[in-house]
Amino acid sequence: MHHSLIAAAAALALAGAALPAHAAPSTVPLAAAAEATTQLPRGVRPLHYDIAITPDAQAASFAARVAIELEVLAPTRDITLNAAELRFLGATLTPGAGGAAQDARIAVDAAAQTATFSFSRPLAKGRYRLALDYTGVVQTQAAGLFSLDYDSAQGKKRALFTQFENSDARRMIPSWDEPAYKASFALQATIPAGEMAVSNMPVAQATTLPDGRVRVRFADSPKMSTYLLFFALGDFERATANVDGTELGVVTRRGALAQARFALDASQDILREYNDYFGVRYPLPKLDNVAGPGRSQFFSAMENWGAIFSFEYALLLDPAISTQVDRQEIFATAAHEMAHQWFGNLVTMRWWDDLWLNEGFASWMEGRMTARLHPEWNTALNAVRSRDHAMARDSVVTTHPVVQHVETVEQASQAFDEITYSKGEAVIRMLEAYVGEDAWRRGVRAYLREHAYGNTVSNDLWRHIERAAAKPVTAIAHDFTLQPGVPLIRVADPVCKDGRSTVALAQGEFSRDQPGRKPLSWRVPVIAQVVSAGSGAGAGAQGGTLVAGGKGTLSLPGCGAVVVNAGQSGYYRTLYAPKAFARLSAGFAALAPIDQLGLLSDSWALGMAGLQPASSFLDLARATPLDAEPQVWSRIAATFAQIHAQYDAADPGRQRFADYAVARLAPVMARIGWNAQAGEASSRVNLRGDLIEILGQLGDRATIAEARRRHAAMERDPQAVPPGLRKSILAVVAQHADAPTWEALREAARAETSPLVKDTMYGLLASATDPLLARRALALALTDEPGATIGADMIATVAGNYPEMAFDFAIANMAAVNQRVDATSRSRYFPMLARASSSSEMVGKVRAYAEKHLAPEARRDAETAVAAIEDRLKVRAQRVPEIDGWLQRNGI
């Protein structure tokens, strides 16, 4: 319990100084706290929690006691805090300055997730200690304190973990479960002998009790929000390394520790970089990454301060099945969650309205760090894909601003979406390009120094960036974060004179379902470049302008095709005049790979929205050379799969398009080959897997036959299915499985001893395109066989092929499905199953579900699913015929 002023903590942060774990300010000042949204009365605030918990993993319950040091800010007879699924046995309040204790009357409001403690004598302003005895439930899904079961050499095992974000600490600890109510935590647990307990801080003391159990007490935490507290218990192993005075650790189930070696090594490199970048050394004495088997539908890892939790697939590399993509994603996940240790943990958004300050920044930082530490992966090109995810969500009427108003727990849960993560990331990337890397970094450092251990809103960040850059950043940032939508930059044909190209720009709005709406207005930073035919990628100096008031002009050195959004740092769609687009298409091979991806991305999105010919993408794909960057071919292949999926299964044009797509991709596959080559680039390795799976989806007979041949030869020839291709080969075999093959895959899943591989195998069983096998997978998902956390994933996988079947099944079995989905995420799960539907009837079904089961303020995901279905119907009716026309015109 150490309460220091924020100014002292900020002073220690100067020039890269470490922030001691206990150098924490008291709390958010009352005036600031009054501005924050809260669902609790404002008159009481916590200062410190002293928690003692005794979990019973097998009985799925726990007993606990918490003593909360609190401050009463205004006289009251009641103290109300958050509590969910807790049974209170007693409550006593003791004045901090001494005096008689009072027992409390306890009233629980299950719907509001609160408990109110009332006292016979009024409480004056001052400090008190509230002691609560209670019991609770160990969940089977990732909310509160939950269990994960897995197979081991010693039989079935169960481990316990916590997941508190966004509002589930209240399921284990009666607490002020809101981000602005920061407090310090002391945690102790009584655990079985031979098991390991892990929390945010190191173990301070371990005492063996007379009955053989062990009481473990952890060091006090710094001031932090409740959602960042963590506890895990199980038959674990731990490995460590030391970086800049911090003990880095990985914690896994016994026997899997070697599979976390890459994550531990990566974390060392990342921590060194972050200590330098942020100018503030990581402030806690240790940082663990704790692996758990299974999965959640809505997150893969959680940034608990000092004890990141990751599902095994996001942390471990199993030599039997892991791929280069897995390696890259594990690195990116580590970079994301470790960035949160500063952005989110050290400095926390005041309320969920500004969640993007956590997630958008961490998403941007993971991309930046991956590109910096592993340039050989060439992951900088992934920025276009991430931006596309945001724009797809942001171009329909159900979108929302990056900074959004959140009132309820459900709304906070629904805030974890593509706008918060991917648009937030894209806006940061654009603003950094606008102000420059150095100015951006100076602003970030100043922001962290001033607000360490405190809570902020977005304007706090903009103020520091603007001061560091000496540019009007806030106005631009507000345009992109306080209003929804995607700007559309229309590009006129360039005019060349005296060796310079002049380009007129006009700003509109890219909308897929409201094309006639008056566009919103943005101030848009635009970067462009001239690329002359035959001059090679990167030709011509870049130039920039700020499009404001709807119009702008660029003057660029050189004459030739003009690439707008050169480098793809801008968050906008680019629509070229026909002649300008034709010139770019003709010189497509000369563009930098990231601009090739940007042009492909824009042409596909604009074509599907009817703003340019739907076949424009196909023109670019035809102009792509075989030796183009592998990520470019991956994007083309993925879009071919999307086009193929837009056709009705009975439409003869579907097979005609599939034949064309296979003919275009087969030479690329032949060039890469099925077998890895020594020293080949990781992007080439990844493309191999992509092509195998997508050619399989397109029904390519040669690919399917080769996958089956290799699968059949696995037992006698280990080289037939190398680990790096095992997932891809099994994906093709499972997708095209007949009943005997499906049963053989199921038997292999049953016999598998690795939880990571086992989970993968059950997921593959749900990918079969045979409708009878898809129904069998749905039935299997609701049994105990796949595991409590895998069934929901299997249903979602079936929905990829058969959304109507999966949605109807889930609704018919809602009670059983709800047991397999995180409690606070159920309002998102059922609409998600319907999003790939092309049935107009599904619109009514989704809305009927929402009206019956969701509060009006919790229906955003349902309406987003409806928008996706209506968009698919429009594409099928209006754009697919244009694709058919292109095929016919080209003699296909």
How would you describe this structure to a colleague?
- The strands form eight sheets. This protein has an eight-stranded mixed beta sheet with strand order 5-4-8-2-1-11-14-13, with no helix packed on it.
- The protein is an alpha+beta fold.
- Strand 13 and strand 14 form a beta hairpin.
- It starts with 5 loop residues before the first helix and ends with a helix.
- The longest helix has 30 residues.
- The protein contains 28 helices and 30 strands.
- Helix 13 packs parallel to helix 15 and helix 23 packs antiparallel against helix 24.
Mean pLDDT score: 93
Contiguous runs where pLDDT drops below 50 for at least 5 residues: 1-34, 534-538
Rg, nearest Å: 28 Å
> In which order are the strands of the major sheet placed?
5-4-8-2-1-11-14-13
Shape: globular
The largest sheet, given as strand count, sense and whether it forms a barrel, is: 8 strands, mixed
**How many individual β-strands?**
30
Total helical elements = 28
Strand fraction band?
A: 15-25%
Terminal residue distance: 74 Å
Which bin fits the share of residues in helices? 40-55%
SSE class: alpha+beta
Please describe the topology of this protein:
Elements: H1 6-13, H2 30-35, E1 44-56, E2 61-72, E3 76-82, E4 86-95, E5 102-103, E6 105-109, E7 114-123, E8 126-137, E9 144-152, E10 155-163, E11 184-191, E12 196-199, E13 203-208, E14 214-218, E15 231-234, E16 236-243, E17 246-253, H3 261-278, E18 286-292, E19 301-302, E20 307-311, H4 324-340, E21 348-349, H5 356-373, H6 382-394, H7 409-414, H8 418-435, H9 437-451, E22 455-456, H10 458-469, H11 473-481, E23 486-491, E24 495-497, E25 500-510, E26 524-531, E27 543-547, E28 551-557, E29 561-564, E30 573-576, H12 578-586, H13 593-608, H14 616-622, H15 630-646, H16 652-672, H17 682-697, H18 701-712, H19 723-735, H20 739-751, H21 755-765, H22 771-781, H23 791-801, H24 803-812, H25 814-818, H26 826-834, H27 840-853, H28 860-889
Parallel strand pairs: 1-11, 17-18, 18-20, 21-22, 23-30
Antiparallel strand pairs: 1-2, 2-8, 3-7, 4-5, 4-8, 6-7, 9-10, 11-14, 12-15, 13-14, 16-17, 19-20, 23-25, 24-25, 25-28, 26-27, 26-29
